[in-house]
Design goal:
The structure holds three protein chains of three kinds. By secondary structure, chain A is an alpha/beta fold. Chain A has helices spanning about 45-50, 75-80, 100-110, 115-125, 145-155, 175-190, 200-205, 225-230, 235-240, 255-260; strands at about 5-15, 15-30, 30-35, 60-65, 65, 85, 160-165, 195-200, 210-215, 220-225. Chain A is built from ten helices and ten strands. In chain A, α6 packs parallel to α7. In chain B, a hairpin with a 4-residue loop joins β3 (about 65-75) and β4. Chain B is elongated and about 95 Å long. The termini of chain B are far apart. In chain C, α3 (about 85-125) packs antiparallel against α5. Chain C is built from eight helices and no strands. Classes of the chains: A alpha/beta, B alpha/beta, C mainly alpha. At the B-C interface, α1 and α2 of B face α2, α3, α5, α6 and α7 of C.
């Protein structure tokens, strides 16, 4: 199975602070791959590098064979037209209605007549279950619904690559289940490749074909959900079992409590 | 809001601006008196133009018949050379004279043209020789003081 | 100690100059994407509606009151010299040359400028601009440039309306209320207000102000951090910087234009 996206030897830093190091990831066509890890491990940065919003210091991201950060503006925009991205919390255009939000990429990038756009938009909204809400404004719908509208917008042009940044964050269990099913079904129906960045173990394991675990900018484990559930790796175990302390420490590093309370050994 | 409605409002907005501009130009400004149409230019030379400025009116019998277009210094004759754009509707004889007058007591200065008696009229490029310079306030005051002093001397003799 | 003081002053100056350079570079970036924006005149006209039409009421009302007050104050002073018939000229010149462009620009900065800054800042905070970028649409061209040109078009229109309404306000107070002769009111005004030197120069001023104020508003919004505190500080910065720019540019332009 060929890879749509390949990450090789990727290093990224903000000045002195290293965010990602030595990253190697494959995203095969047609598969749903989850990138998971605690907050601040760098998984959103991976999405930004794939989308070309930032450039790596070393290494490369290839999409369909092209190195993303070597593309000029034209090339980058051409690439992005084949991608759809769901931002955390949706990032809908608040001045437009639900309909106009989903129609936006269609109106900007195609010359299709309005009647055809109308049909396409309603079909996309139907896929996410919000066809009857198309007249509403983002302020008038719930967070979960806004997220679904954003999904519809992300797939408006039937992209080859769909990226989801924390799609389950802040959702109630029902909405989470709905969204997870949506992501899986869309992936299969469109034949696209989906990259899912999340820390929700239960939902991701239910729908992903392959999972990468990250911590402090490195990949600490990878495998299919089944493999990871029985993994003995301490980091994976802590994450999967939601244990408060383990390889990822509970306490912010620094002095011990005894020292702070002045209970240290008297010299 | 619908695209059509917005366009209407924006159109009205721009029209309002245009209307304001025309109002300012014609009702508040001197637009109605600036454009003349056809003009012919003549030159007058003065010893002193005082406070005369370009665009100042040229009046005959109080009616505006032209405008000052350019004021330059003639360093051969050491005089001011004033070019006037005269309305082609009005013809003046070749021996007309020019005077620099003041509107009101301390107002703007303008040029008064007085018709002479010649049969031939001024044509494009002609010069007027008979000119009277602006009255400079200081000279007036000096004159007044001297004449008063002279009177005083006569009186005491 | 002195060395450290000089050092911090030096770095402050360098920071200031660097941000000025960055602002200039952003301005030219905006100009660079503008031809693309002009291909979508609907976007620009939509913004003219939000920026211009919605400011019309406050501009017109302000113009009316400024004109009326000018007539009152002008009359009290001119009356002392027996020069009341010059009232029309005084009111019109003050409005057309200075008050129209400048006061409109300041009001515009406060009303439309802050609204632009907040809107852009919040769009950026809500990742709407990033989402647009990921959809292969340049937010500079789609969002910022139409607003910029709308402001540039709206400002001269608003300033002209301000002056025109002000003149009428001056007429109402001067002629109708106080009793200055109507004929000399308009005649002296027409004698003193030159279309090219006064009215047109005023329009040029407001055009320049439009560029300065609108760009400042957009730039501050775009540079704001995605927090409520910084967006609010950005709107304040817009008003302060835009006002200072207006005063500075006004001085320079007045010196260049009105130097008979």
């Amino acid at each position: 199975m060929s890879n749509l996206v390949e990450i090789r030897d990727l290093h990224f830093a903000y000045g002195e602070r290293s965010i990602l190091s030595n990253l190697r990831m494959d995203f095969p066509r047609g598969k749903l791959i989850a990138v998971m890890g605690g907050s601040g491990c760098g998984k959103t940065t991976v999405l930004r590098l794939i989308g070309g919003q930032i450039r790596p210091q070393r290494g490369e991201v290839r999409i369909g064979g092209e190195v993303v950060h070597q593309l000029d503006t034209q090339g980058l925009y051409r690439l992005r037209r084949r991608m759809g991205m769901l931002f955390q919390f949706g990032a809908l255009f608040t001045d437009l209605s639900v309909f106009d939000n989903v129609a936006f990429p269609l109106r900007e990038h195609t010359d299709l007549p309005e009647e055809l756009i109308r049909d396409l938009v309603l079909m996309k909204l139907n896929a996410v279950g919000l066809r009857n809400a198309h007249r509403l404004k983002p302020a008038e719908i719930s967070g979960g619904m806004a997220r679904r509208v954003a999904v519809a917008r992300a797939v408006a042009l039937d992209p080859e690559l769909i990226m989801y940044d924390e799609p389950f964050a802040g959702l109630d269990p029902i909405s989470m289940g709905v969204t997870a099913n949506l992501i899986r079904n869309l992936n299969d129906a469109l034949g696209s490749t989906s990259i899912l960045v999340s820390h929700d173990v239960h939902e991701c394991f239910a729908i992903a074909d392959y999972v990468y675990f990250m911590s402090a900018g490195k990949i600490v484990a990878e495998g299919t959900p089944d493999e990871l559930r029985i993994s003995e790796d301490p980091y994976v175990k802590q994450f999967v079992n939601a244990a408060p302390d383990g390889p990822v420490p509970f306490h912010y590093p620094g002095k011990s409590l005894a020292d702070d309370l002045g209970l240290g050994v008297r010299k | 809001m619908h695209r059509k409605t917005i366009d209407v409002w924006v159109g009205l907005f721009v029209l309002l601006g245009l209307a304001s501009l025309l109002f300012l130009a014609f009702q508040a400004g001197n637009m109605s008196s600036v454009s003349f149409g056809q003009t012919y230019s003549i030159t007058g030379r003065f010893d002193n133009i005082g406070g005369l400025k370009p665009q100042a009116p040229v009046k005959s019998a109080g009616v505006v018949v032209g405008r000052v277009s350019e004021i330059t210094f003639d360093d051969q004759r050491f005089q001011a050379s004033v070019r006037l754009d005269m309305d082609t509707d009005y013809k003046f004889p070749k021996d007309s004279s020019l005077k620099i007058l003041t509107a009101g007591l301390l107002g703007e200065q303008y040029i008064g043209i007085e018709a002479g008696g010649d049969d031939k009229n001024l044509a494009e490029g002609d010069s007027i020789m008979r000119t009277q310079s602006a009255t400079v306030l200081e000279d007036l005051i000096n004159q007044f003081i001297y004449s008063k002093a002279a009177e005083g001397k006569e009186g005491s003799e | 100690m002195i060395g450290r003081l000089l050092g911090s002053v030096g770095s402050l100056v360098r920071e200031g100059v660097a941000s000025l350079g960055f602002a200039v570079r952003s301005f030219f970036n905006l100009l660079r994407v503008s031809p693309g924006a002009f291909r979508r005149p609907g976007l620009i006209s939509e913004q003219i509606h939000f920026i211009g039409n919605y400011s019309l009421v406050i501009i017109a009302v302000s113009g009316l009151f400024v004109g009326m007050v000018l007539a009152l104050q002008g009359y009290y002073t001119l009356n002392q010299y027996g020069a009341e018939q010059m009232l029309g000229q005084v009111v019109a010149l003050a409005l057309v040359r200075e008050l129209g462009p400048v006061v409109t620009a300041l009001l515009f900065a406060g009303r439309a400028g802050t609204s632009l800054t907040a809107q852009i800042g919040l769009m950026k905070a809500g990742e709407q601009l990033s989402a647009m970028e990921m959809m292969a649409i340049n937010p500079l061209q789609r969002v910022l440039a139409p607003r910029f040109w709308a402001g540039v078009v709206a400002m001269p229109v608003l300033a002209t309306v301000f002056s025109a309404v002000g003149v009428m306000g001056g007429y109402l107070v001067g002629v109708k209320l106080i009793g200055v002769d109507e004929g000399s009111f308009w005649a002296q005004m027409q004698a003193g207000v030159d279309v090219r030197n006064d009215v047109l120069n005023g329009v040029i001023k407001s055009f320049i102000f439009g560029i300065a104020v609108t760009f400042t508003a957009l730039f501050q919004g775009y540079q704001a951090q995605p927090t409520p505190e910084d967006v609010s500080r950005a709107t304040t910065r817009t008003v302060v910087i835009a006002s200072l720019l207006v005063w500075g540019l006004n001085f320079v332009m007045t010196a260049l234009m009105f130097n008979k």
